[in-house]
Each structure stands twice: as structure tokens, then as C-alpha cells.
Amino acid sequence: MGDKHLSSQFDLELSGISTRVLEMGGLVESQVELAVSALTSFDGDIASRVLVAEERVNQMEVEIDHDLSAIIALRQPTARDLRLLIAISKTIGNLERVGDEAARIARTVHRLINSGVFSRLRLPVSDISFEAELATASLRKALDAFARLDTVQALEVIKQDNQIDQEFDGLMRKLITYMMEDPRTISASIDLVFVAKAIERVGDHAKNLAEQIIYIVKGTDIRHNPMDTVESVALKD
Amino acid sequence: MGDKHLSSQFDLELSGISTRVLEMGGLVESQVELAVSALTSFDGDIASRVLVAEERVNQMEVEIDHDLSAIIALRQPTARDLRLLIAISKTIGNLERVGDEAARIARTVHRLINSGVFSRLRLPVSDISFEAELATASLRKALDAFARLDTVQALEVIKQDNQIDQEFDGLMRKLITYMMEDPRTISASIDLVFVAKAIERVGDHAKNLAEQIIYIVKGTDIRHNPMDTVESVALKD
């Protein structure tokens, strides 16, 4: 503060961190897409690529967190900057959990392939694709809102989460019907239940990301608030 | 630093925060226990109490996070203290997620009661009790380790997570058998699948808490590391 040199150094470090957060975000987004395509194409090699990427994501979380702590300790940031740094720390925690969900899906694909179930049954995997498209679109939008600190777009992400939840509920009903019609499919269907749940959680993480963006920009913690409060905070000047 | 007055004021604030984190931890622990007892005793009133407590937990998360940011901005803490404050922020995020899992279980109990399924079927709810005992014991131990900054105990929590995962896998096998024997139980059993999953996640959150404790005390981020590395960090002088 007052020291131009220190201040611009801080801005430089911050923009470096933001770039890496977006890189990490792009990586987990493609992990989810790959994991779902591994499922719909019964492709174990693609699933393996997701699991390799998980290690890179975990490593990025630890590295960015370490750099955040170093910046806070070194630069004694203002209250506003501090809010940003802590929110970024929570954001990368969220992104790491998205990577976890993708890895869960990939491990399920391996298990389904190993059990030979894909050759015996016609699993309703295409329905899961649609839920996954909604969730990855939300995630992409949240990352885009983070890049531009855009609270209007963040608000859209929060509102869309409901749609993903409804898609998940519909999938549950379908899977239950499927199991009841042919109880031999129960074991494999339970795996799909968890895949659908993992994708629903990706939507939750995108929503959490959006809440952090509103906190960064507006300084108000809107988690656990009713939608009209969230809306008025996100849209206020 | 150097300033006795400021420093002891900081210690006072820090100990106040720690007390509230433990209070929040006690609350979510009892939420999980209540939610499971609502399930095993088919008691909708108990489930409702869990949902009331969830609002209090959410509120505590927001309040403690707010105070943490204020302390960091005001006290310009040393690197070590900063590590502690950021780790506490992650810890309460973890505890809030435990509260979420308890609320998920409570909502499932309501749904099962409303569907009248408890009077039609003998659901295998007692098996879930045992998994829940393991998970709440881990959570309690993690909170105790937090209170005493005890890395040996934190290490035990991390090691025990495996046992909860195995219990969960066993439960899945039982539930699948149960559904295959009587396909009319599928819908209710899927609810129990999610309850078992929620409890398994409580174990994961206890493990995350334990990892934060090791980070606070030893300054090494051991997330995503193999067990022998975790062990040597937790036990080093």
C-alpha cells in the first residue's frame, strides 16, 4: 500500500495465480468430459487418462495453495485482496473435488469393463450424458465468470443448479425402473447411480465456485441464503 | 510480533475461534448421530431436529469465516499463525459438509416415512448403524486431535478411513443382494445406498480434518501423499 513496486508485484503474482486456477479448472472440466465419454464408449484407456490427470490436479491444488500462503505472508494484502486470496484457496479446493468426482467415474468405468457387464447388458448410459452436459456447461460458465469476475454469470450458474438436480432425480427414477424390470442389472445400475450422483456433485461444485465469485466481487458471503437475497447481492452496483 | 499486547490479543482471539470450531464440530457430530438414530427408529421428529441444527451449522461457518478474515486483516499474523488460520477456514468448510451429509440422511428419513415403506418392509437399517459408529468415532477423534493439536491421533484417523470404506463396500453388497431377492425393495434400498454413502463421506471429512491438523502442526501439506510419507511427517519431532 503506497508502495507502487510492491503493489504491482502483488498484482503480477495474483494474475499468475488466477491463470493457474483457470488452467486447473480447464483440466478438471476436460476430466469430467473424458470420464463420461469413457463411460458412453466403454473405453478403459480414456478412463485411465482421467486417473493420470487426477494426480496433476492434486499437485496443482497443493502448489497453488502453497503460493497463496506465501503471498499472504509476504505482501500483507489489504482486506479486499485477502478476501480474494482466501476465496481462491476455497475455489481450488472445489476444483480438486471436481477432479475427484471425475476419477470416481473413471474407476467405475474400469470396474464395469472388468465385470464384463457392457457385453451382457444395454446400460442406459446415454441418459447420463445429458446430465453431464448440463453439469460441465455450468462448470465452464463458473470458470468463465471467475476469469471475468462476472457476478451476473455467477448468478446464472447458481440458478441452473436446480435443473441439474431435476435431471438427476429423473435419472434415479429411470434407473430404479430399469432395475425392477430386470434385477440382473441391479449391481451395474448401482454403479450408474453413483456416476449420476458424481455428476450432480460437479454441478454443486460449480455452484460453490459461483458463490465464491460473488463473495470476491461484492464482499458478501451469500452461501446458505435464499435465492432472492443471492440475486440482490449479485446484481447490486 | 515484539508487541506483547497485540500478540496476547491475537492468542485470545485464536483461542476463541478454536472453541467455536470445536463447538461447531460437536454440533455436526451429534447431527450425524441423530440422523442415524432417526433412521433406525423411523422417527421423523428426530430427523426434523437435524434439519433445524443444519441452519445453525451453516450460520456458524459463515460467522467463523468472517472472524478469521477480520483477524488476518487486522493482526498481520506470522507465517505459522497464518497457516493455522487458513487451515481453520478449511476445517470449518469440512465440518459444514459433515452437517450437509447429516441433513441428507434426515431428508431421506422423511422421504422413507412419507412413502410408508417402513411399515411395509424390514429395511436393513441396523447394518448402517455400525458404519455410522465408525464414522462418528473418527470424527470425534479428529476433533479431539484438533483440540490438542495431536498429530499422532490425527494419523490414526487417516489410517482408520480404510475401515469405513470397507464397511461401506460390505453394505453395498448386502443392499444389492437384498434388492435382487425382492425387487420391490429397490426404491427404498437406493435411499439406503445414499445414506451409506453419506456416512462414508463423513469418514472422508474426518480424514480431511486430520490432514489439516498435521498441516497446522508440522507445516507440511500431506494431502494426496502415500501413507508412509504421511506417517513420517505426522511422527517427526
Automatic annotation (TrEMBL), chains A, B:
**Which residue intervals define the domain PhoU in the entry?**
21-109, 132-213
* Gene Ontology BP annotations: intracellular phosphate ion homeostasis; negative regulation of phosphate metabolic process; phosphate ion transport
Key words of the record: Cytoplasm, Phosphate transport, Transport
Q: Where in the cell is it found?
A: Cytoplasm
Task: Using the UniProt record, give the first listed, main subcellular location.
Answer: cytoplasm
- Keyword match Cytoplasm: yes
Naming one, the record's GO cellular component terms include: cytoplasm
SUPFAM superfamilies of this UniProt entry?
Answer: PhoU-like
Q: NCBIfam families from the xrefs?
A: phoU_full
Oligomeric state and interaction partners are given as: Homodimer.
Q: Which family does it belong to?
A: Belongs to the PhoU family.
Q: What does this protein do?
A: Plays a role in the regulation of phosphate uptake.
Protein known as: Phosphate-specific transport system accessory protein PhoU
Organism expressing this protein natively: Kinneretia aquatilis
> What would be the name of the gene that encodes this protein?
phoU
